[in-house]
Amino acid sequence: MEDTTSQKSMAVPLTAFGAGAVLALLLGVFGKVHDPTLNGTTTLGFHSVIQMKVVITTVIGVLVVLQLLGALWMYGKLGIKAPSWLGTAHRTSGILALGLSTFVAYHCLWALGLESGTLADGESVPTRTVVHGVLGCAVFGAALVKVVAVKSKRAPGWFLPVAGGLLFALLVLVVLTSAVWYINAKGWPQSGGY
């Protein structure tokens, strides 16, 4: 029989992963049943919502790489001593990345919905689009798991790096299936004034 300490500590990640899965599922259901509209969206001066999302998603991608480097540095994996300001910078860039991700996700779910199956013109939704939408919903489930991992004092030691790694991997995949794909296919978006 296991001791109650290990049972209590495993309850934190199990509960967090369960709650994260429910959140991701609810976002996906909303995206699927919501009637997409451009009302309530912005382009921030770009020609389209998509172009605006590409630029902001690229910024998110840079912040995500900085998050990984910051975490490796703070935990002594880079072989150089971390400065005292690094923890604050890491938290700030993480909050900024999550805030920008929420802004982009709102525009994805509100303006486009969660696309799958067949479009109105009879064409099938590209696999990349479906994968991107599912991964985008999963990001917010993983973000919930990561917040729990950061805040929990009772979770096992493996929980924070696993939660952080999961969130990092999902964000990278979302950036690759959106901004990187778009830039590769169509080039860098131009603002409306050009």
Task: Tell me what you see in this structure.
70% of the residues lie in helices and 0% in strands. By secondary structure, it is mainly α. It has one domain. Helix 1 packs parallel to helix 3 and helix 2 packs antiparallel against helix 5. The radius of gyration is 19 Å and the shape is globular.
Helix content: over 70%
Q: Structural class from helices and strands? A: mainly alpha
Q: Which ranges are low-confidence, i.e. pLDDT below 50, for 5 or more consecutive residues?
A: none
Q: Care to count the β-strands?
A: 0
Largest sheet: none
What is the strand content?
under 5%
What is the global morphology? globular
Distance from N terminus to C terminus (CA atoms, Å) equals 69 Å
Compact description:
Helices cover 70% and strands 0% of the residues. It is built from five helices and no strands.
Descriptive labels:
194 residues, globular, mainly alpha, single chain
SSE arrangement:
Layout: H1 4-33, H2 49-74, H3 86-112, H4 127-151, H5 159-186
